[in-house]
Amino acid sequence: MSPRDTDESEASRPRDEPVAETYSGLEALSTDPDNAQTDSRENLESYLTPREEHYVRNHHRTPEIDAEEWTVSLTGLVNSEADLSMAAIRNDYPTESVVHMMECSGNGRAYFSPDAEGDQWTFGAVGNAVWTGTPLRAVLEDHGAERDEEKWLTVMGGEAKADEDVFCRSIPMAKALDDCILAYEMNGDPMTAEHGYPVRLLVPGWFGNNSVKWVEEVRVMDSMVAGEEWESRDGRDYTEYQQSSYRIVPAQDDEAERYASVDSVDTHDQMRETEEIRNAYLFDQLVKSLVTSPADGAVLSPGADGRVEVTGVAWSGDDAVERVEVSTDGGETWGEAEFVGPDLGRYAVRKFRYVWDADPGEHTVVARATDDRGRTQPATVSDPEEGLRGIEGDRYPWNQKGYGNNAYRPLGSSVTVER
Ligand SMILES: Nc1nc2c(c(=O)[nH]1)N[C@H]1C(S)=C(S)[C@@H](COP(=O)(O)O)O[C@H]1N2
Ligand SMILES: [Mo]
User: Fold this and answer.
1) pLDDT tens per residue, range 288-345
2) Residues within 5 Å of ion ligand 2 by Cβ?
3) Is the CB of 208 under 6 A from ligand 1?
4) What are the structural domains of the chain?
5) Which residues contact 351 (CB under 8 A, 6 or more apart)?
6) pTM of the entire structure?
7) CA 210 – ligand 1 centroid, Å
């Protein structure tokens, strides 16, 4: 047995205790299934979020999987269907790593008023990790998969019990070929049970819901997972998490419109192209930022020069962060922040810094980021009665499940500057 094997059995040890009790940097929102977010803004200042501080979002219980026995089935529009062992996934293909600031689309749901359904995540369902694994491109080529742009790759989680909906997502072929990996390592360590051991899909730049954990089947298809066949395959619903959950559904709609395929996979564009797509899918992440220091509630005593350093983090989806501005008066006036530290790639967190000449008194410090297509974070979340489907003016659309909230004002730090 190699040292790695020892590490792995340790890392994948099934836990009886809730994940937030095992990992010191997490705060539990629920325990069965486990859902936990990072417990402070300072945790996000790290260039790589340690697993002790990386949020966990589970629809079902974390499964207990024997990696020696586990296989990933490759099915559908391929020359040769196959059951890939973990050894084959690791050893028969190239290895790639990507740094990805992964955000749960429910992050920021707590700032919706009236409340949106689900766990009330504030700012902590986001984490920046280096994920290592096998590029899907190599596996698909090797098995003669049909790879034209109209195809979708449907990826299924293996943890659902016989009476539970299967966690299943469809990824457009172009994205799958571009940079998706079957990941088996996180931050250079073997994957841990709750993050997907022994193998998860990693979709860089996209909301966490796309990165299916505990992958059991990868199927090449003509469409997304949709239709009756998939609403009851082996008596279980495979469509829920693609077609019903993880959609932007405003108050006036009963439920999401289901589609077999969509042309645009840019979340922001879908939210605008209301003619073509009625309820946006949560695909690539929306540009967002967070002030990490000073902390909310801080009392500051700057030195003689009155200067305070404001620091924070920014991230985005397929379109990189281009610019960050900081306001110390709640968004009335803005100054340009500078990026600091390494750029770990287009999907990684960017750290920023702003030097503030602070006057004594109460202040609200906020940041807003803009992506390289010129799209800026809105200020607030709309009221449900406004019926918005996309970001309009300075308002983020209230939606039934509270997804995608990238409004900056609710994330403000209220600070007191002393003389
Ligand atoms: N099989 C499976 N994969 C899953 C989920 C799940 O419940 N089951 N949750 C998804 C969601 S909503 C998110 S945000 C990410 C969270 O990944 P993490 O727990 O490693 O942070 O995993 C995704 N993959
Ligand atoms: Mo999520």
Assistant:
1) 999 999 999 999 999 889 999 999 999 999 999 999 999 999 999 999 999 999 989 9
2) 57, 104, 208-209
3) yes
4) 10-265 (3.90.420.10), 288-417 (2.60.40.650)
5) 45, 47, 311, 312, 313, 314, 339, 340, 341
6) 0.95
7) 8
